[in-house]
Amino acid sequence: MFLIDQTLGRSRRRDEAQRAAPHRASCCALTPMRQIIFILMLITLAACGAPAAPVDPVAAGGRAFTIQCGGCHAISEVGSAALGPRLDAMVARANATPDPAAWLRMSITNPAAEIAPGYRPGLMPISYGQSLSPAELDALVAYMLKVGG
Q: Half-sphere exposure of residue 66, counting CA atoms within 13 Å on the CB side?
């Protein structure tokens, strides 16, 4: 009986507090259901953001070339041919094949498959197949075909 009275006493005190400040209890208290609704609204608002601008593969490939290739190779007027061959001739060879993009992709990921005249094997790193994502590799190939061909 004492436990029931004590529980009822708490309920009565809570009811009295809510009657004394009804605006506080009704609008500011985040019940679990209100918390869930609030979180769902935030997620919905975040999903309604502006769509991402499409990435220009040639521009992305230009950035990849500058970062990954331009220190050793040049293509058109970009980069330095200090260590490796100019890639204009490589793009010309690729354009003579049935699938230029596939040939360039193979040449980048497996540089020992064909060595440019005057250069020795093992000079170019063989890790580009692992270090470049497929999207980066496609962008780099698109850039080389556009600029070098």
A: 8
| Six-digit token string for 71 | 């220190």
Nearest CA-CA partner of 91 in 17, 27, 148, 15: 148
Q: 20 versus 29: which is more confidently predicted? A: 29
pTM of the model: 0.62
CA dist list (Å): 32 to 39, 75, 101, 121: 11, 61, 56, 66
CA 59 vs. chain centroid, Å, equals 15
- Token pair for 13: 């005190």
Q: Which domains does the chain have, with CATH numbers?
A: 9-47 (no CATH), 57-115+123-148 (1.10.760.10)
Tell the residue number behind the tokens 């209100």, with chain if given: 34
Neighbours of 81 (CB within 10 A): 14
